[in-house]
Design goal:
By secondary structure, the protein is an alpha/beta fold. It is 44% helix and 17% strand. The strands form two sheets. Strands 1, 4, 6, 7, 8, 9, 10, 11 and 12 form a nine-stranded mixed β-sheet that branches. A three-stranded antiparallel β-sheet has the order 3-2-5, with no helix packed on it. The longest helix is centred in the C-terminal third of the chain and has 25 residues.
Length: 351
């Protein structure tokens, strides 16, 4: 096989619509992952992105199905310690039997780092489109890959672009990310999970910026939540899944999913905003609604976001948990929820 790979003919691509349950509430509710999607993790140095990626690799499955994913793990420029962490976790859970590893360590040549993801994707395409497997490709860390591109570009005396990265970096990243998806008439699929660390926590840096243009959303990991001791520290506000609309609802997850997701997001966003206000005017200045929303933002982080590294919540458990948490807010303030769902799922009405 040619490792550069051929582009999937746009006409033969199939639209993804199978919801993948990752067991991580923040992802399943707010940025639902679809089979065949490319959804990167925007992280920063010292944050637990590797733990999150491994938890997803361990737990990812279609709802009500036992079909296992094959994991293709592509490591670029990671330390031996990180590699051992990944390997031992895959061994511990028995996932290593269903995994293919392509590893380029930090002390390996940069030029090899550029072919590592191409080798990994070629293996993934073989497994998906010739052997009918569902493949989850995890790359870590795209930032090291882009730095290698810059290094090789500098050595070849190419004209640099933004921040010294080559001008063709966008094209180059697209050649990797676009090798995800479903092909009509083939049973297999490739879902990509690129991990990138944003240099200096800067989401406008060329690497996250260009990745965000190509991929179908992003999961943003927050240093602030991590410092509060919350795992997984996913900030749902800037996170997004562009394919979520096609994969949630009555047929795939649950009829109230969209409504609950909107309400949880809105209430949390308002609660977060109020924190800034409270720091200035104090809590006594708030009215009843604002007090409830402010309290909710804390509960959202503590009860909804927080879960253990081995906790695998089904989408129904996640939605039921949301209803329980939202019941601390008067229903008249829950303006994003349809009344029919309140009648059907609200804890007060269920009893």
């Amino acid at each position: 096989e040619d490792i550069i790979g051929a582009a999937i003919n746009p006409y033969s691509r199939q639209s993804p619509n199978d919801f993948i349950q990752t067991g991580v509430s923040a992802i399943d509710l707010c940025t639902s992952l679809v089979r065949g999607q490319k959804l990167p993790i925007f992280s920063a140095s010292g944050l637990p992105h590797n733990d999150i990626a491994l938890q997803i690799a361990r737990q990812a499955k279609l709802k009500d199905s036992d079909e296992e994913f094959i994991v293709v793990f592509c490591a670029m420029g990671i330390t031996a310690e990180e590699y051992n962490f990944f390997r031992s976790d895959l061994e511990r859970t028995g996932a290593l039997e269903n995994a293919v590893l392509f590893v380029n360590l930090a002390d390996d040549p940069a030029v090899e780092r550029i072919i590592t993801p191409r080798l990994a994707l070629t293996a993934a395409e073989y497994l998906a489109f010739e052997k009918d497997y569902h493949v989850l490709v995890i790359y870590t860390d795209m930032t090291n890959y882009c730095d290698a591109l810059r290094q090789i570009g500098a050595a070849r005396e190419e004209v640099p672009g933004r921040r010294g990265y080559p001008g063709y970096m966008y094209t180059d990243l697209a050649m990797l990310y676009e090798r995800a998806g479903l092909v009509k008439g083939k049973k297999g699929s490739i879902t990509q999970f690129p991990i990138l660390t944003m240099p200096g926590d800067d989401i406008t840096h060329p690497i996250p910026d260009l990745s965000g243009y190509i991929t179908e959303g992003q999961i943003v990991i927050s240093r602030e939540l991590h410092q509060q001791g919350i795992y997984p520290p996913i900030n749902v506000l800037p996170s997004l899944s562009r394919l979520m609309g096609s994969c949630i609802g009555e047929k795939t997850t649950r009829e109230d999913h969209k409504s609950v997701s909107d309400q949880m997001y809105a209430a949390y966003a308002q609660g977060r905003e109020l924190r800034g206000l409270v720091a200035i005017v104090g809590e006594d200045a708030l009215n009843e609604r604002d007090k409830q929303l402010l309290d909710f933002s804390g509960v959202f982080e503590d009860k909804f976001l927080r879960q253990t590294r081995d906790e695998d919540r089904s989408i129904d458990e996640t939605l039921d948990l949301c209803w329980t948490l939202m019941s601390s807010i008067d229903t008249k303030y829950l303006v994003r929820l349809d009344q029919k769902w309140i009648d059907k799922y609200h804890p007060d009405n269920k009893a």
